[in-house]
Write a structure and sequence with these properties.
With about 350 residues, the chain is α+β, with helices and mostly antiparallel strands. About 20% of the residues lie in helices and about 30% in strands. It is built from 5 helices and 21 strands.
């Protein structure tokens, strides 16, 4: 009933004026000298000379009539514009706008898949290229863990940062992505909680309001935790992520509008781990917002998901091929733009 009433009012705004003007045209002004005949007006042109002008059929008006009518039209045009803006505001409350991430139905079609591979233990690699995803081109690389896939967090030695591929080889990983945030000084440190294979590198619980953590139990089970769920002493490994994307299937990502290269980790209903990299900062792959990243992880079946370090750090490694994503740190769309990082999340 509310919607019908609003649209009835809008219809009256455009088709039923509040009051009718006093006839087709305004009252004839003081310059009129007198009617000569139907459609003719005799005027004093302001210089003492009389003249004649043909008016509309059956109407006698002075030269001033055109000016008066233009003033009337101007007033009505301004009024109409204001009413259009009011109607648009009312309509926006009735039909709320949706974000691109909410509207987009992501289809993982074969025609978009450009690479795929499988490793022992069920680990799978897939790469998809979309000419348009969220309105822009996107390159998406995915690692899907199998039941026998095991994970670990690899850390550089003595704060001397290394590339993802170098750290992956050091840990004899079958696949890897960059993981936690870090400082860029000579002796790099983790910028947030980090524990790897029982060794605590940073026990800080500070960070983004919506922060989350990827953790491994001593039995090797993967968890994505909110700050209140972290029990550091009971975990084998844990790494800080600055934005919790999904929790129990619900999108919890922040609304930051910036698009960047992204790295994410998710866990599906069966407990399988999904690692993902979206390339960005290039005309061939734009990167995504955090909510768009959450929508991607949800479309892949994740129940919980976490944003890891991104930007120039984002990179994915696959044994035998090297870096398979397109890291942006060299500002080129190739595989050579790796940034040196502090730690990685790897599969073995």
């Amino acid at each position: 009933m509310l919607r019908v009433g609003i649209f009835s009012n809008i219809r009256s705004i455009f088709f039923e004026p509040e009051s009718s003007p006093p006839g087709p045209f305004p009252t004839i002004g003081a310059r009129e000298e007198g009617r000569v005949g139907d459609g003719m007006v005799r005027t004093d042109g302001g210089g003492g000379k009389q003249g004649f002008r043909t008016a509309g059929v059956g109407l006698a008006v002075p030269f001033q009539r055109g000016r008066d009518m233009r003033e009337l039209q101007k007033r009505f045009s301004v009024r109409r514009l204001l009413l259009i803006l009011l109607a648009a505001v009312l309509f926006s409350f009735i039909v709320p706008a949706k974000t691109a991430a909410a509207d987009e139905e992501i289809q993982w079609r074969r025609k978009n898949r450009i690479e795929d591979a499988r490793a022992v233990g069920g680990l799978e690699f897939e790469q998809y290229y979309f000419k348009e995803l969220f309105g822009r081109p996107q390159m998406v690389s995915i690692l899907r863990g199998g039941r026998r896939t095991r994970y670990g967090i690899g850390v550089c030695e003595d704060g001397k940062r290394e590339t993802v591929s170098a750290l992956a080889k050091k840990y004899d990983a079958r696949a890897a992505v960059n993981a936690g945030f870090f400082t860029f000084d000579a002796a790099s440190r983790p910028a947030g909680m980090l524990k790897a294979a029982g060794v605590v590198y940073n026990d800080s619980r500070e960070g983004a309001t919506n922060r989350g953590y990827f953790a491994l139990t001593p039995q090797g089970d993967a968890r994505i935790l909110a700050p209140g769920e972290v029990k550091l002493d009971e975990l084998d490994s844990i790494v800080y992520g600055n934005d919790l994307l999904l929790k129990s299937g619900r999108i919890t990502a922040s609304d930051a509008p910036d698009r960047h290269p992204r790295t994410a980790v998710g866990i599906d209903e069966d407990g399988a781990v999904i690692l993902l990299v979206v390339d960005g900062r290039n005309e061939k792959s734009a990167g995504v917002t955090l909510r768009e990243l959450a929508a991607i992880m949800k479309s892949l079946g994740c129940r919980d998901a976490l944003n890891l370090d991104g930007g120039g750090s984002s990179a994915m490694y696959w044994r035998g091929a090297g870096i398979v994503s397109y890291p942006s740190d060299n500002k080129k769309f190739d595989h050579a733009g790796e940034r040196r990082v502090h730690n990685i999340l790897y599969c073995h």
